[in-house]
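Quick note —
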Amino acid sequence: PASNRVRYLQWGLGRAVETDTMMFAEYCASEVFREIPESPSAKPQIFSDHKFGWYAERVHAARERLDRKFDEPHTTSDLARAVGMSMFHFTRVFAELVGRPPHRYLNEVRLRAAHNMIRKGLSVTEACFACGYNNLSHFSRSFAARYGASPSRFV
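Predicted structure written out below.
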């Protein structure tokens, strides 16, 4: 069914081709197949073309910032301010277009980066702090929940 999220992924594929950013194209293509649970609420409102374009640009800018600077501390209010939106509206729009809230998206980016670092030979502690985590036990629990095994099993 038509949704703002599907529109965003289509927009992203087009943008990735225009700008020759294959990682973004891969992200959008893989997200098409990600299962998103149906919302029990009423049918979501589809944004107007003008509003959608404005939101897509801002969400994309925030995503790029999180992807590039995943090791830095980010707050939702800082991300929203950087793209010219209120925090609550930004969080709602980001979650609708990306399929998860900003903090969860950032956690996934950090865990993916940590997984790659550990597989390339960094210690678990080095990967933890290099990815922006401040607490090794929290990192280990999050990593194990995501990958089904503790990070030390990937060393």
